[in-house]
Specification:
The protein is mainly alpha-helical. Helices cover about 70% and strands about 0% of the residues. It has 15 helices and no strands.
């Protein structure tokens, strides 16, 4: 069985930090693009071509099966889905406030519909957390397959095969839905197959990348511009229409071959860049709090970015658009910092850090739910009998 022990690697934190900056950047850029900016649109289009594949690739770096299926499911549920549900719960009062301030009344029907979508694995209250749902499904599938593969070379082969299969499944999802009754991306099952291809790739190549980063960094400097130019000159080739962008959240990939070329070239460009970038405390902070930032970005995506762009949209130039979006990203992340501090100090177990103890919650991974329920039931029965005797 293949296993990989998780350890903290600085350049991986750098990838998370730069990637999270781009997530915030893209969600303000899409509002600027909607206001008529061609520059923002093409920046968005370039980032979307490889950004989500990067996150799935680095998620695969540290794959480690967790014992039997029940243990594995429990840990993945706590680390991936629990934060999705908690962020959704926290966003309900935000939606109530937003509807009231925007329209003068609370659209309870829309709020209830958004809540019900969680039954299908679609986190409509905070759409940014779709990545965690998709990753959960991806990792459940991967936990069945990867341990049965005897080498990383075979794992890479299977990853490419699964990736192409996933792209075809997404393309012909209507025909598949007629046979299976499963509509597109119920629990992101269709896109999880695509994600699993990138996940397998990350798992397979991680030791190779780690070795290059440690002993042959000169190769990174050599390959960095090559990956960039491949990504830059291919990101627009997978577009069926001029206004097309890759959107994995909608299983929207474009033409398969150009998508794969740009996704891998862009991903390896970002990984190479982060290997040679000087590590700093900001990268460390973002790398350790990526999940918090992912969920909190939903506040800006759903409620704030559009209002900011309505107040002022930048001139349509590379300099102004980039500066405008970057400043808003930095301010947004700064506003997230005190919220992260409060959540991480008090209830980190609800946001992926499930093995922590206290101050209000125990280590959720070691918490014996069944034993506690049995104890509570015994106490209840005992008290009931005492009442009858009295």
């Amino acid at each position: 069985m293949l296993r990989l022990t998780k350890e903290r690697i600085l350049w991986v934190d750098s990838i998370k930090a730069v990637g999270m900056f781009l997530v915030f950047y893209d969600h303000i850029a899409e509002r600027v693009a909607a206001a008529g900016s061609a520059i923002a649109f093409y920046q968005l289009k370039f980032d979307h071509a490889f950004l989500m594949p990067v996150f799935f690739i680095i998620s695969g770096f540290f794959f480690k099966p967790h014992g039997n299926f029940n243990d594995n499911f429990k840990k993945l549920f706590l680390r991936r889905l629990l934060p999705v549900f908690v962020f959704g719960l926290l966003f309900i009062p935000l939606w109530i406030t937003y509807f009231y301030m925007k329209f003068g009344f609370v659209d309870w029907y829309q709020i209830i519909v958004k809540i019900l979508y969680y039954l299908k694995g679609s986190p409509q209250l905070n759409l940014i957390t779709w990545f965690l749902v998709c990753l959960f499904t991806c990792e459940i599938l991967a936990s069945f397959i990867i341990p049965k593969i005897k080498s990383r070379t075979r794992s890479l082969f299977w990853g490419i095969l699964i990736l192409v299969t996933g792209l075809l499944v997404c393309r012909y999802h209507l025909s598949i839905a007629k046979l299976t009754g499963v509509t597109l991306n119920t629990w992101y099952i269709h896109e999880a197959i695509v994600a699993m291809g990138f996940y397998f790739t990350g798992f397979s190549i991680f030791p190779f990348i780690k070795k290059i980063a440690a002993t042959k960094k000169w190769m990174v400097y050599l390959l960095l511009p090559i990956f960039f130019f491949i990504a830059f000159f291919t990101f627009n080739l997978n577009s069926p229409t001029e206004d097309f962008t890759v959107l994995m959240v909608l299983s929207q990939h474009g033409y398969i071959i150009p998508f794969l070329i740009t996704a891998f070239a862009g991903a390896f460009f970002l990984i190479s860049l982060c290997i040679i970038l000087p590590f700093n405390s900001l990268f460390e902070y973002i790398g350790k709090n990526t999940l918090y930032l992912l969920g909190l970005n939903g506040i800006f995506h759903h409620f704030i970015n559009g209002e900011i762009v309505d107040l002022y949209a930048p001139p349509d130039s590379v300099v102004w658009t980039s500066l405008y979006c970057s400043v808003i990203v930095l301010l947004s992340m700064l506003l997230c910092a005190p919220i992260i501090t409060i959540l991480d100090k008090n209830i980190p177990q609800l946001f992926g850090k499930t093995s922590k103890e206290g101050p209000f919650l125990p280590n959720l991974e070691k918490f014996k739910w069944r034993d506690k329920v049995r104890e509570a039931n015994k106490i209840y029965v005992k008290n009931k009998l005492l009442k009858k005797e009295n």
